[in-house]
Amino acid sequence: MSAEQTSRLDRVDRAILRLLRQDGRASIRSVAERVHVSRANAYARISRMVDDGVIRGFTARVDHEKAGQGASAYITMKIVQNSWRAVREQLLLLPGVAHIALVGGEFDVLMLVHTADNRALRELVLGSIQAIPDVLATQTLLVFDETDQVPPDA
Q1: How far apart are CA 86 and CA 47, in angstroms?
Q2: What percent of the chain has pLDDT over 90?
Q3: Is 42 helix (H, G, I), strand (E, B) or coil?
């Protein structure tokens, strides 16, 4: 997002974003009422933010354990220098990948995964991730409990 697009987000846009982060299924009417604009105005603002790429999509917050994904882990990776794009493309093909980030620090990549159990997690790490040629090392951090951040009411 460019600085120009950021500057175009006013107080109402930010309130709409907070509401949609809380409930991506909220109706236009409900959003409009809660931010005190007309339905047409709310629709136009949401459409503009989608077109501008501010809103990249609408998703559901999932309870991974209830969805049959009882094991979650953050996996850190050291990769061959300048291999980020190629590694990312291979990681995106793996099952259970929720988030991938190129980071600075003692490792290069941080990835969040959800798998059915520890056996599936082990296979993902040892059989799939470590088989990627440009992955030099991994470390697996098991998630014992997690809480999604939900924005406060607008």
Answers
A1: 33
A2: 75
A3: helix
Question: How many whole angstroms from its chain centre is CA 63?
Answer: 15
Two structure tokens written together for 100: 């991938």
Stated pTM of the model: 0.74
Evaluate whether 89 touches 53 at the Cβ level (below 8 Å): no
Instruction: Give the span between the Cα atoms of 77 and 54, in whole angstroms.
Output: 29
**Number of CB atoms found within 10 A of residue 140's CB:** 16
Residue owning tokens 């933010």:
49
Alpha-carbon separation of residue 11 from 4, 24, 52, 114, 152 (angstroms): 16, 19, 17, 36, 15
Q: Rounded to whole angstroms, how far apart are CA atoms 63 and 118?
A: 17
Separation of alpha carbons 20 and 17, rounded Å: 5
Strands of the sheet containing 97-102, edge to edge, are 97-102, 109-115, 71-79, 135-142
Residues 6+ apart with CB under 8 A from 130: 138
